Amino acid sequence: MRPQKKTSQSVLIRGAMEHLYLVVNCKTPGCTAGCVIKHLGPYAGQSEVQKMAPEWFEFRGGECKKLHLYSRTEIYPMRNRKAPPPEFENAF
Ligand SMILES: [Zn+2]
Predict the structure, then answer these.
(1) Residue 74 C-alpha to ligand 1 middle, in angstroms?
(2) Cα–ligand 1 centroid distance for 37 (angstroms)
(3) Which of 17, 23, 55, 57 has its CA 20 to 30 A from that of 9?
(4) Ligand 1 center from residue 53 Cα (angstroms)
(5) Bigger pLDDT: 42 or 4?
(6) Ligand 1: distance of its center to the CA of 41 in Å?
(7) Domain layout of the chain by residue ranges
(8) What does the pLDDT read at residue 63?
C-alpha cells in the first residue's frame, strides 16, 4: 500500500480555525432543520451576532424548501471547523 500523499489541503483542514455561522431553525411544522443562513468568517469571539442581521428577512429551508419570515431575534450563532461549501450563499 502506498502512503497517502500529503496535500496542502489536508494540512489546511488540520490547522483550520473555527468558522462562525448564523443559524435559524426551520418553521415548517415537523421540520425543525437547523439552517445556516450566513457565514461570518473565522470565529473571532463575536457575541452580538444578531446585530449583523436585518431586523426581518425571508429564508427558504434547505430540507423542505419552504419560505418563512424570520426576525433577527430567532438567529443563533454556530461555530464549526468546516468552511462553507463553494455553492453556499448567504441569505442576506
Ligand atoms: Zn424545513
Answers:
(1) 15
(2) 13
(3) 23
(4) 20
(5) 42
(6) 25
(7) 18-80
(8) 87
In this prediction, residue 11 carries a pLDDT of: 47
Q: At 42, list the grid cell.
A: 473565522
CA of 24 to the centre of ligand 1 (A): 10
Give distance in angstroms: CA of 27 to centre of ligand 1.
6
Q: Which long-range contacts (CB under 8 A, 24 or more apart) does 37-42 make?
A: 37/75, 37/90, 37/91, 37/92, 38/90, 38/91, 38/92, 39/83, 39/84, 39/88, 39/90, 42/17, 42/18
Is 70 exceeded by the pLDDT of residue 10? no
Does 3 have pLDDT greater than 80? no
CA 71, 88, 34, 43 torsion-angle sign: negative
- As a whole number, mean pLDDT of residues 13-21 equals 72
Half-sphere exposure of 47 (CA within 13 A, CB side): 0
Q: What average pLDDT does the segment 38-65 reach?
A: 85
